Amino acid sequence: MTDAVLLEALRWMLMSRAYDERATAMQRQGLYGVFSPALGQEASVVGSSMALDPSRDWIVPQYRELMAVVRHGYPLDRLAAIGMGRGSTASRIPEGVNVLPTQVALAAQLPHATGLAWGLKLQKKDAVVMTYVGDGGSSEGDFHEALNLAGVQRAPVVFFLQNNQWAISTPRRIQTATSSFASRAAGYGFPGVEVDGNDVLAVYEVACDAVKLARSGGGPTLIESVTYRMSFHNTTDNPSLYEDPKERDEAGRRDPIDRVVKFLRRKGLWDEAIASQTQAGVREEIDGAFARAAGFPAVSAEDLFEHVYEELPHQLRRQQDDLSRSGGQT
Amino acid sequence: MTQRNVLEAINDALDGEMERDPRVMVLGLDVGKLGGVFRATTGLLQKHGAERVVDTPLAEASIVGASLGLAISGMVPVAEIQFLGFTAQAFHQIGPQLARYRMRSRGTYHCQVTIRAPFGGGISSPEFHSDAVEAQFVQSPGIKVVMPSNPYDAKGLLIEAIRDPDPVIYCEPDRLYRLGRTEVPDGPYTVPFGRAAVVREGGDVTLVAWSAAVELCLRAADQLAQEGIAATVVDLRTLVPFDVETVVKAVARTGRCVVVHEAPLSAGFGAEVVAMLAREAFYDLDAPVERVGSYDVPYPPAPLEGWYLPSVQRVVAAAHRTVRL
Predict the structure, then answer these.
(1) Cα dist from A30 to A35, A84, A97, B145, whole Å
(2) What is the mean pLDDT of chain B?
């Protein structure tokens, strides 16, 4: 990673944390829906996505990688608008942005990523798919089926598993008896790599290797990025009921942002002036995105029937008529 | 025109669409060299190659989930699930994923995916091979549910399904696969979704059915005719879209109706037909609408299926109940 790329990575990591803070604060005021921060996982999210070329590669996300999809071209204001309940047009992904919608049914996105990569390969497109899953999602049957099929088809896909130690309140040690998620790759006939997920340089390097392998026809890689969820699962969660605070404190000492800052400082590439200038830029970008988000159209009753089918079946047209006759009453 | 049975009509539709559109591919268990357990895909591998006719690992969820991804990449997958009962292993990828992807992405992506799956009883299959679970998909907004009952429709509805930009579950009546050959045009043609067919006309009672139950109703109508009761038989062809108009018109003429399906009775699609008639045809009804379905018990071992499945006798008895009122 060159210094310039590392500085760019740090900026994305700061963006991720600033977005988390803003969205969480707004959720507490009733201005944003349920939200899952990426706090503590910024190196994982940013380092992996920076290995991709947004003009040809694809991201198939789960939901805790917002800055990965933003870096890939998904406009930040649209994400903010969806969070603010203005998703009727904001949820549309702009043309040319190679990102699939976020996935809440965990691991269900993995077979989609395999199929997408397989199809791109069949059409001889020079494209790699990166898909995200967590330690919890890895227990789903879809995880097994998707990796198995990807191996058989040698699909150009990178499975990026963020092991953040928690599936809501379920700790990693009772998620699986294996000591390594990466070792599962052996069962699918492709490489598995474990990486310090709080080290953005290391994450970037293994992600670049995996993307290169996929691009050259070498098939999939499973990356286990070992990190820590330094926040709640989402804004409905209360980790004090199950998490040992010592564990959180210890994770805080491995904060991925602090580590990059320390590294850059030692290289003479970071000081108070650069920090405040960067933070001001990040704040401005977040402010701008949320201001534009508020301007997205509010949802309307008609949204219910739009985009269910290309053409509404008869029985749905009748239901739509019932709704319009009610004059928009709920 | 060539005489074809249902299986040959399906094979012909797949072959023709693969020839017409290089994006169309077939994937599933044993669809390649074997040509499928019923041989519906016979010859396709040899003709269209291993990249487009793909034997997949034995894993239904990834057959469907990968088809979704393939569709977004620009392919047009036709996935075979070996038996409809096995869609249980893939249901989370059908209802919550495939069917909802257009909505979830607010129209950014759509899934031009056809899932073919044989089903139905009367052929002494092992457990899970016969289950008629079509109504589960009706409860999954975003997917269309197609139930062909004869060779002509089998070809035309399958071509329509493959060309439809939205996902389609196409349920094949395995009992009828080789039951008989009828005239099927050689070139491509489509049968539009949402148009029920009146396959027999009679003024006394309307029998509404789909898939293999249509054949059953035609036999029941023959028997009723011997007693002087003239039956109309309506083949819904598709459950989503549901052709309300044709059913209402037929029932308005006869004033009596029996709905017949292989699925368990309670909350089967027949209940939807009856509820619709109660609203749309209330003043035309001369008797309560009868339903004949399978019993609300798990699909039994083959030696018991004769008692379980709707029979000509049960359909005739239900028709008697409506006509004699």
Answers:
(1) 11, 9, 30, 40
(2) 97
> In the structure, what pLDDT confidence band is assigned to residue B109 with cuts at 50, 70 and 90?
very high
B107 touches chain A (CB under 8 A): yes
Q: Which CATH number fits domain A3-299: 3.40.50.2000, 3.40.50.970, 3.90.1680.10, 3.30.1330.60?
A: 3.40.50.970
The encoded tokens of residue A289 equal 């995105």
* H helix intervals, B255-309: 269-280, 305-308
Task: Please list every residue in chain B whose beta carbon sits closer than 8 Å to the beta carbon of residue A145.
Answer: 57, 59, 61-62, 65
What pLDDT was estimated at residue A234? 96
The verdict on A61 touching B (C-beta cutoff 8 Å) is no
State how far the Cα of B221 lies from the Cα of B207, in Å rounded to an integer: 8
Contact B242 A313 (CB under 8 A): yes
Give the distance, in angstroms, between the CA of residue B315 and the centroid of all CA atoms in the same chain: 20
Judging by beta carbons within 10 Å of its beta carbon (0-12, 13-18, 19+), is residue B194 exposed, middle or buried? buried
Q: Which residues contact A99 (CB under 8 A, 6 or more apart)?
A: A58, A59, A61, A69, A72, A73, A74, A93
CA B86 vs. chain centroid, Å, equals 15
Q: Which one is the CATH code of B2-184: 1.10.150.910, 3.40.50.1820, 1.10.510.10, 3.40.50.970?
A: 3.40.50.970
Q: Which residues of B touch A146 (CB under 8 A)?
A: 62, 65-66
A87, A119, A144 ranked by CB distance to B74: nearest: A119
Q: CB distance from A80 to chain B under 8 Å?
A: no
Please name the fold of domain B197-323: Rossmann fold (3.40.50)
Q: In chain B, which residues have their Cβ closer than 8 Å to the Cβ of A87?
A: 106
* Two domains, one topology: B2-184 and B197-323: yes
Q: What angle do CA A7, A11, A12 make, to 5 degrees?
A: 120
Residue ranges of domains in chain A: 3-299, 301-330
The interface predicted TM-score of the complex, written ipTM, equals 0.97
Could you check whether the bond before residue B241 is cis, i.e. omega within 30 degrees of 0? yes
CB distance B234 to B247 below 8 Å: yes
C-alpha distances in angstroms, B108 versus A190, B72, B144, B189? Answer: 32, 10, 19, 29
Q: Count the Cβ atoms, other than its own, within 10 Å of residue B292.
A: 27
A111:B96 CB<8 A: no
Q: Residues of B with CB below 8 A from A92's CB?
A: 105-108
Q: Is B282 exposed, middle or buried (0-12, 13-18, 19+ CB in 10 A)?
A: exposed
Sketch the domain layout of chain B as residue ranges. Answer: 2-184, 197-323
The whole model's pTM is what?
0.97
What is the average per-residue pLDDT within A88-96? 92
User: Would residue B320 show up in a list of annotated catalytic residues for this protein?
Assistant: no
Q: How near does any CA of chain A get to the CA of B307, in Å?
A: 34
Q: In whole angstroms, what is the distance from residue A47 CA to residue A71 CA?
A: 11
Rounded Cα gap, residues B106 and A89, in angstroms: 7
Return the residue matching tokens 């005739």: B316
pLDDT band at A328 (very low <50, low <70, confident <90, very high): confident
